[in-house]
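Lab notebook, design round three. We kept the backbone fixed and only want residue identities now. Task for the bench partner: fill in a sequence for the structure below.
Input structure tokens:
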């Protein structure tokens, strides 16, 4: 949960640990882990949105972004204007840090409920797909290790 909250707010935290954990836990424990992770993502999304809103309020004419992140901010803001749910739903599968999505949402006055719903759905898709890939690869490794080598 902390990694998901950090990833969604201010720090591009590595969430690969979440995928490994999701792939390793069975059934109901998986549901609980995903639920906690999504709760962390929602909290982090709110924190990132709040930061963006505060930045926009501090400099109402224009939020000044560092040069290193300006291209990400421009791309995310354009995606929000055109298709906010598509942008949030696919955000986990882009090279743009998710924190950029949440901060830009706050600075561009995206409604918080839109961000939270889109973020939770997008994060759920990311975590489920990637943990499924990790689980499938883990099963492949286990089968290979269980099969004696041909001589």
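Proposed sequence:
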């Amino acid at each position: 949960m902390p990694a998901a909250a950090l990833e969604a707010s201010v720090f591009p935290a590595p969430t690969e640990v979440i995928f490994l954990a999701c792939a390793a836990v069975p059934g109901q424990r998986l549901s609980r882990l995903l639920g906690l992770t999504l709760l962390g993502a929602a909290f982090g999304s709110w924190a990132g949105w709040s930061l963006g809103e505060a930045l926009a309020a501090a400099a109402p004419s224009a939020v000044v972004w560092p040069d290193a992140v300006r291209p990400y901010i421009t791309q995310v803001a354009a995606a929000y204007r055109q298709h906010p749910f598509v942008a949030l739903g696919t955000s986990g599968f882009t090279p743009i840090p998710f924190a950029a999505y949440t901060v830009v949402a706050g600075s561009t006055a995206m409604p918080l409920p839109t961000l939270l719903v889109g973020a939770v759905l997008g994060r759920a898709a990311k975590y489920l797909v990637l943990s499924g890939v990790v689980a499938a690869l883990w099963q492949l490794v286990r089968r290979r290790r269980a099969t004696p080598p041909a001589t």
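Keep this in mind before ordering anything: The mean pLDDT is 77.
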